[in-house]
Recover the amino acids of this structure.
């Protein structure tokens, strides 16, 4: 696990659990002369969101992490000036709020994958290699994180995939419907 | 560029108007492409995607620019749809009443013009959000509270103009507004109340002036563009005592409000007392999937289990007392004795690890937050529309409304998720109809249920105080006294004040003459 350099912002009231810089800043990506600032939104009360975030942090993919507590106020505080690429796996309401705030500031929606729990299984609607999530040995949010990273790096047209897990239980603090999403500001598009 | 143009406007005229708007506000403040226009959609709409999409948006930063925009809109008969912060979700969000309208987006006008600590008010522009005002007050060391609506990103002005409510003693937002500046459709600027007196320093301390009072006609209407508004702010009290009481039985609702009425009318409980149903309260903590994965309303056995697991009642009552501690303690004896007289009542003065308690306690002390959005996780899928009938604070009326609405919800396969708030002499009932937007059949059922409830409620004397864009016309038609005389009056005023019908046509079922025949 990478060491954290936590910079809790001096915000009024509660809301953002914190903003963490992982110490990498803008990360050099595969394209020559281009760099991508990646900000990750983690909904800290949601176990799948934490797993997703950890996977991207472990891969060195995220330059900054915005952690949101149940007040959700951090979305208002922290997304005011964010630029570059913003990624999250969050509950549906958080995805809606983040999307609204980011679109108003000119961001483009790049990915919008859905994961919902029904009939004792997780059902995923994603893009990329078929059956990756179904056959992964990782927890599914980790597999989604890897998949999302791969799709963003490849930048090639992707097919939509539906995928279903084996029988499983829904974690107590899981919202049971999640969205993996990516927004980008102009100048960061491929 | 958007392929949509306003109904009845020639493409060349529309194009010329857009160019002229850009001449007023700059090219970068006129939006015609899909990406920026996508931010004006109603993310929770009960209608299919593609309904209520604007053709363009223009974002002025002041009154002079608004006047110029109105002049252009009048010349080309361009319908404008005004938004402040555009957060009216569950009632349409920022979306226009009809596709093709041009958004008059006032979010850039977000200045807090004045905070008066001595008299307890602020003067704000349309784009000021609750969170922004809250942060500003804390930053300047003010001891004034705001009264936020449940979502912190809502607009101070917009919520008051929509007759919105909050949870402190200053919870009736329109009553707490004081003094408006309005740009009329012909560009004339009017200030209401003492604001009409040149040099007056009392615009925000009294609503009264010589002559008629016009402020109300600029709420839930399309008679002008409100550009400044005063709002009274509550001084921080020396004491604050929030409480929650759970009640075991659905039928306790009647007794709850019979007991509440004298406590409210006599101001023993000064804030908006709220009775929240089991599932609204539970949905801040768990989802429906955790208890039931089938179709239709949640079985009673699951409801009982939720109540037990989460230590909730079928009704969960929130209120708070404010003021000097001796007064709070004195009044608390009266409140406790009255509200705890219902068998099975359980009192909570604190609850650990309970986000619902946490956000209610924050709201009742004027701290904005966004937690209430979490309750949408109950179903997931980003759809909800609020049905909001009003009545007297009467136990019998509350129970009658509840039984009627719950029965219809269950018939249509929905859970009843609602709350009752008591104001000065009124009771707001908010039913949140939740649906997965991706499930077309469910979304259509939600739409049909809403329409049915509007008519059934009106038949027994319950009118809505606020509604989603899609139901404005239907609700307007329920106000039938003397053959619809009130809406006839609205239309007569509209035709005089906005003869070209450029301001928010169809808002609250008020249409300009040219569109009345086609609407």
């Amino acid at each position: 696990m990478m060491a954290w350099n936590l910079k809790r912002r001096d915000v009024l009231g509660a809301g953002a659990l914190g903003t963490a810089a992982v110490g990498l800043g803008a990360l050099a990506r595969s394209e020559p002369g281009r760099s991508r600032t990646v900000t990750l939104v983690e909904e800290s009360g949601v176990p799948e969101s934490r797993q997703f975030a950890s996977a991207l942090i472990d891969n060195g993919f995220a330059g900054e992490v915005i952690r949101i507590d149940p007040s959700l106020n951090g979305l208002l505080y922290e997304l005011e000036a964010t630029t570059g690429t913003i990624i999250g796996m969050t509950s549906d309401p958080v995805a809606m709020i983040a999307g609204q705030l980011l679109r108003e500031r000119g961001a483009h929606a790049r990915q919008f994958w859905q994961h919902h729990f029904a009939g004792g299984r997780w059902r995923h609607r994603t893009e990329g290699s078929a059956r990756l999530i179904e056959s992964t040995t990782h927890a599914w949010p980790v597999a989604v994180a890897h998949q999302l990273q791969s799709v963003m790096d490849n930048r090639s047209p992707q097919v939509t995939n539906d995928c279903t897990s084996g029988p499983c239980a829904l974690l107590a603090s899981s919202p049971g419907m999640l969205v993996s999403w990516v927004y980008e500001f102009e100048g960061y598009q491929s | 560029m958007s392929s949509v143009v306003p109904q009845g406007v020639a493409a060349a005229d529309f194009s010329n108007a857009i160019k002229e708007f850009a001449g007023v506000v700059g090219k970068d403040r006129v939006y015609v492409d899909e990406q920026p226009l996508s931010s004006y959609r109603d993310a929770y709409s009960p209608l299919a995607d593609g309904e209520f999409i604007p053709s363009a948006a223009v974002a002025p930063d002041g009154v002079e620019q608004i006047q110029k925009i109105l002049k252009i809109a009048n010349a080309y008969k361009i319908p404008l749809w005004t938004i402040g912060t555009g957060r009216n979700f569950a009632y349409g969000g920022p979306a226009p009443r009809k596709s093709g309208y041009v958004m008059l987006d006032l979010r850039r006008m977000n200045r807090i013009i004045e905070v008066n600590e001595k008299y307890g008010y602020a003067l704000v522009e349309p784009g000021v959000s609750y969170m922004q005002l809250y942060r500003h007050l804390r930053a300047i060391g003010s001891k004034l509270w705001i009264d936020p609506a449940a979502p912190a990103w809502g607009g101070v002005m917009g919520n008051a103009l929509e007759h919105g409510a909050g949870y402190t003693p200053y919870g009736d937002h329109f009553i707490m507004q004081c003094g408006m500046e309005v740009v009329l459709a012909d560009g004339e600027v009017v200030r209401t109340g003492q604001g009409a007196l040149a040099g007056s320093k009392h615009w925000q301390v009294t609503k009264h002036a010589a002559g008629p009072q016009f402020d109300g006609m600029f709420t839930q209407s399309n008679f002008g563009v409100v550009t400044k508004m005063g709002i009274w702010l509550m001084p921080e009290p020396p004491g604050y005592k929030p409480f929650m009481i759970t009640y075991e039985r659905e039928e306790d609702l009647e007794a709850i409000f019979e007991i509440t009425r004298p406590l409210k009318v006599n101001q023993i409980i000064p804030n908006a007392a709220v009775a929240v149903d089991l599932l609204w309260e539970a949905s801040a903590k768990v989802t429906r999937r955790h208890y039931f994965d089938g179709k239709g309303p949640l079985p009673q056995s699951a409801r009982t289990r939720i109540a037990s697991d989460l230590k909730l009642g079928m009704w969960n009552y929130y209120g708070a007392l404010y003021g000097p501690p001796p007064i709070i303690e004195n009044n608390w004896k009266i409140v406790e004795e009255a509200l705890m007289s219902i068998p099975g009542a359980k009192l909570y003065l604190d609850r650990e690890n309970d986000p619902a308690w946490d956000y209610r306690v924050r709201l009742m002390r004027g701290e904005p937050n966004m937690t209430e959005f979490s309750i949408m996780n109950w179903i997931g899928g980003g759809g909800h529309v609020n049905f909001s009938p009003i009545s007297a604070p009467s136990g019998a009326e509350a129970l009658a409304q509840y039984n009627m609405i719950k029965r219809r919800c269950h018939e249509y396969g929905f859970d009843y998720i609602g709350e009752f708030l008591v104001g000065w002499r009124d009771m707001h009932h908010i039913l949140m109809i939740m649906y997965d937007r991706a499930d077309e059949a469910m979304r259509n059922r939600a739409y049909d249920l809403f329409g049915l409830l509007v008519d059934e409620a009106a038949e027994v004397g319950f009118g809505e105080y606020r509604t989603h864009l899609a139901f404005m016309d239907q609700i307007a038609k329920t106000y039938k006294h003397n053959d619809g005389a009130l809406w006839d009056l609205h239309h007569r005023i509209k035709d005089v004040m906005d003869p070209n019908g450029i301001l928010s046509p169809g808002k609250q079922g008020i249409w300009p003459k040219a569109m009345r025949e086609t609407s």
Remarks:
- The first helix of chain B runs from residue 11 to 25.
- Chain B has four domains: 11-105, 112-235, 240-469, 479-516.
